[in-house]
Specification:
Length: 70
């Protein structure tokens, strides 16, 4: 199966399609690391187009911290 993000230690992450919008104008983006751990970040004062690359970068950094099959 193809994953959205591959970590340096064999871990992986998949982005979720949904985005949670909040009343204050912010929104939260979600992903799952290794099919188990939920990863999310909330963004204020960003458009979705601006936040998506930032989210993918943060998700890559977090996924790199996980070890798979050790």
């Amino acid at each position: 199966m193809q994953h959205d993000i591959t970590g340096i230690n064999g871990s992986y992450a998949d982005l979720h399609g949904g985005v949670e919008k909040h009343h204050d104008g912010s929104f939260t983006m979600y992903a799952t690391i290794n099919d188990i751990d939920l990863f999310h970040q909330r963004y204020f004062d960003y458009t979705f187009e601006e936040a998506r690359p930032l989210f993918k970068e943060a998700l890559q950094e977090e996924t790199n911290r996980y070890f798979l099959g050790v």
